[in-house]
Amino acid sequence: MRDRYCLIKNKNDRIPPQYHLDNEIIMITLLSFILLLVLISFSGIRIVQQNTVYVIEFLGRFRRIMPAGFNFKFPFLERVSEIVTLRQRNFALINKYPSRDKVIVDVSTNLIYSVDPHEEGVKRYVYSLTNRDKSIGAIIENSLRTYIAKETHEGILEKKEELAAHIKSDLDKQFADWGMVIASFQITEVSFPEAITKAMSEVVASQQLMKAASNKGEAVKIQTVKEAEAEKERRRLQGEGVALEREALAQGLKHSIEIMQVATGKQAEEILALLTLTQYTDTLKAIGMTPNTKVIFLDSSPGKPKELMSQMVQAFQGE
Questions:
Q1: What are the extents of the domains in the chain?
Q2: Residue 25: which residues within 8 A CB-CB, separation 6 or more?
Q3: Is the pLDDT of residue 141 over 80?
Q4: Which residue, of 14, 48, 151, 196, has the fewest CB within 10 Å?
């Protein structure tokens, strides 16, 4: 037993120190390699924000897009070519365009668009154009210039909505080829040179004055017609009132004559003359009591009432 122990001990004594060093190097190398793989794997993780996509290329060629959320790409082989937002964007443009009647029109526009969220749309958006803003501005200006050249400056003001709809329809297909979708196209302002603006204001002012004069004349006409109709109605009612008054007076006289005939036995002509004389004196009394009466010349001779009554009787008898 002792001999065997000595034999093992002798074998261990023959293991060189370099052997242990090599094992440690191998372990460190292996651990480093594993750690490197882990780090490389973590470097391929991508967290994509909402309304955003990453365009991924594989060895320089388009491969796919990364949607919002957790994603992974192969390190070294794949790379993020571009980060594309899917939010709506504004593209404002101000430029001068000649109208059909040779007036230089300043037109301000605002384009609202977004990137087509589908993979093919994003691919077209990234790879179709080199300078997107320049291309968008050029196609809008070309479409506006073509349309405005067919209209007068006054027609442009009247057809702003129609112009905006025409431009949007004209741009829809081209933007689809570029991987973009137009949400809205607005013409925010149309302005002209100061001289044209002043002339247009004067024309509008004169039209308003003519309209006001026409309205005033029409109002006077209506007022005159209404006043004439009112006067006509007033005279009709007045005539009816006078007729009713005379009818009532005649009825009253008839009734009075019948009563006096029964009471006195006199003839109707005499009784009527007496009533007329009484009415005459009452009239004189009423005139004298009127506040505005100044001087009244009357024949106050004693025989005047008798003469008046005689004249009335003769009038009734037809003498």
A1: 2-82, 88-192, 206-265, 267-319
A2: none
A3: yes
A4: 14
pLDDT of residue 173 exceeding 50, the answer is yes
Q: Does residue 193 carry a pLDDT above 70?
A: yes
* Token pair in block for residue 106: 């300043």
- Give domain 88-192's CATH number out of 3.10.310.40, 3.30.479.30, 3.60.60.10, 3.40.630.10: 3.30.479.30
Tokens 């009825």 map to which residue? Answer: 251
The DSSP symbol for 193 reads -
DSSP element (H, E) containing 107:
strand 104-115
Q: How far is CA 256 from the centre of its chain?
A: 79
Give the CA distances from residue 91 to residues 85, 109, 136, 213, 234, in Å, rounded to whole numbers and listed in that order.
15, 8, 8, 47, 72
pLDDT tens for 256-305 read: 777 777 777 767 666 666 666 677 677 767 777 777 666 666 665 655 66
The burial class, CB within 10 Å (0-12 / 13-18 / 19+), for 50 is: exposed
Give the chain's radius of gyration (CA, Å): 58
Amino acid identity, residue 250? A
